[in-house]
Amino acid sequence: MTQFTARDLSDLATLLRDASRAEALPRFRNLLDGDIRTKSGPLDLVTEADEAAERMITAGLLQRFPGCVVVGEEAASADPAVMERLKGAELAFVVDPIDGTANYAAGLPLFGCMAAAVRHGEIIAAAIHDPIGDDTALALRGEGAWMETPDGKRQDLRVAAPVADVGKMTGCVGWRYLPHPKRAEVCANLHKLAASWDFRCAAHQYRLAAAGQCHFLTFYRLMPWDHAPGWLLHREAGGYSARFDGSAYTPTETGGGLICAPDEASYHAVREALFA
Question: Distance (Å, rounded) from C-alpha 255 to C-alpha 204?
Fold first, then answer.
């Protein structure tokens, strides 16, 4: 495969939608106690729906894109060596079958299904599906970002207009995984913003920022299935992002934090306000 086409992206979106309809939605608010487990700790949950949806998406990707590498969240959790397959792969997919599992397990209808295509370490396509709203945010590198419904209706996505004053900015501040004392410092600085929140769901936070409904996002832990799709969506919607130290985001690095903003000046303003 020499390129990832709009048709390929459409097929990816259909696969995410089908897996959500087949595996996630029927189990939503129908999980038994034994269907929910912890992985690395109390903030890291997995359900039977996560695993079933990932199996379906993985099988579909391997059939549609023979020879591709699939790095799913649950497969990588079971075997961390899976992550190494992402580096240098000619075509790889990172997959989060249910992003916002804590919300999903609690019966809160704020979760998503997302995936990104990666070629030789470069993110080239992304899809973030909302199973409840039944629409998908899509991005193709160099060709923009848009929201699409199952009947084919499209609406272009564009980040918010830059705001010079952080006191007039709203956004999502992810501080749960920040180490001490940085966590305390960031929380003490939240008063400098107009408003902040955390949905416990990167899928919806990226969709919100790409649609211009908030100004910025900050994250600390950067697992590729959580951020590769949203990073490209935000970028193709006109946004600017970099890690806390100013370096470029890459899906093969899982630390260093990330700030997404409408432009570079806004990025520096948010970084200075929260992390200085």
Answer: 21
DSSP 8-state code for residue 129: E
**Rounded Cα–Cα distance for residues 257 and 229 (Å):** 16
Three-class SS state of 199: coil
SS (H, E, C) 52-89: HHHHHHHHHHHHHCCCCEEEEHHHHHHCHHHHHHHCCC
Residue 40 CB contacts under 8 Å (≥ 6 apart), including other chains: 77
List, in sequence order, every residue forming a beta bridge with 261; answer none if it has no partner.
240
In 131-181 the beta strands, taken as DSSP E runs, fall at: 135-140, 145-148, 154-156, 170-173
| Nearest 10 degrees: Cα torsion 258, 82, 104, 11 | 90
Angle at 125 between CA 206 and CA 39, to 5 degrees: 60
Q: Is the pLDDT of residue 41 over 90?
A: no
pTM of the complete model beyond 0.85: yes
Cβ-Cβ contacts under 8 Å for 63 (sequence gap 6 or more): none
Least confident of 77-81, 111-115, 254-258: 77-81
CB 220 within 8 Å of CB 257:
yes
Q: What angle do CA 200, 205, 210 make, to 5 degrees?
A: 170
pLDDT of residue 222: 96
Each residue of 82-99: b (16+ CB within 10 Å) or e?
bbeebeebebbbbbbbbb
Tell me the three state secondary structure of residue 268: helix
With cut-offs at 50, 70 and 90, classify the pLDDT of residue 43.
Answer: low
Q: Tell me the domains of the chain and their CATH numbers.
A: 6-156 (3.30.540.10), 166-275 (3.40.190.80)
